[in-house]
Design brief:
Blueprint lengths: L2 H19 L2 H11 L12 H8 L2 H9 L14 H8 L2 H9 L14 H7 L4 H18 L3 H9 L6 H10 L3 H8 L15 H8 L2 H8 L15 H6 L1
Helix pairs in contact: 1-2, 1-3, 3-4, 3-5, 5-6, 5-7, 6-8, 7-8, 8-10, 10-11, 10-12, 11-13, 12-13
């Protein structure tokens, strides 16, 4: 190993050491003098992987501010979010999600961050589940068919029942049809004990009613306020 190569290796070692144990001020000095946030080690880990593994909030925020790739994967296919989820770091998990970390990337064992959190019975599972639910339902609310299809294709938990209620409330027959194609339960109970059939009847949306009835022909199901679908249709 020549002197130049050795010097580069020493600098890289310093970067990772500071990312794990140092301060944002010290890392910034190193980066300003001789480096990039995109450096990787022999495990194909980035500075973000190392900072998350050590729970170094200050460094994590600094690296995100410097536009580090939050979805870079190490040799095991693990992103920084996989590490945070598995270790149970709630706040770091939320920071990474807010920074745009993918919730769906799978490691080499076929596990996404939610899988790892649930496997370890960590509270980060709730953080990730809530984020998935929010993003999925937001796509439903906006009628963003492309992103809804993308979420449905991913092997992550999604709130299909709540999505069907929301699509019905929005009178979005195209979205209702898409969700029904995923075999979502049309008898799922929402607010005030209403099922999507009640909502469609109250809205007078015959197109959605026909879609729902093709899956659930029982017109006698009562909701908690003692109205059934036939009565709502008459009203």
């Amino acid at each position: 190993m020549n002197k130049n190569t050795f010097a580069v290796k020493i600098k890289e070692y310093l970067h990772f050491h500071v990312a794990a144990y140092g301060t944002a001020t010290k890392l910034k000095q190193l980066l300003d003098n001789c480096g990039s946030v995109d450096v990787i080690n022999k495990e194909n880990q980035t500075l973000l992987h190392v900072a998350v593994n050590r729970g170094n909030f200050e460094i994590i925020r600094m690296l995100i501010d410097h536009s580090i790739n939050v979805d870079s994967a190490d040799k095991d296919g693990q992103t920084a979010l996989h590490i945070a989820a598995e270790k149970g770091y709630e706040e770091i998990t939320q920071i990474l999600i807010n920074a745009g970390s993918s919730l769906c990337i799978k490691n080499k064992n076929g596990k996404n961050p939610l899988d790892l959190a649930q496997q370890q019975k960590n509270s980060t599972a709730l953080v990730i589940s809530n984020s998935i639910r929010h993003k999925f339902l937001h796509a439903i609310h906006c009628g963003d068919r492309q992103h809804v299809i993308q979420w449905l294709s991913e092997d992550v938990h999604t709130s299909l029942d709540a999505a069907l209620h929301l699509a019905t409330v929005n009178n979005d027959s195209s979205m209702v049809s898409l969700l029904l194609s995923q075999n979502v339960s049309v008898s799922c109970i929402g607010q005030e004990g209403k099922i999507p059939l009640h909502i469609a009847a109250a809205n007078g949306n015959l197109n959605i009613l026909q879609l729902l009835l093709s899956k659930f022909p029982d017109l006698d199901v009562q909701d908690y306020v003692q109205y059934n679908t036939l009565k709502q249709l008459k009203d």
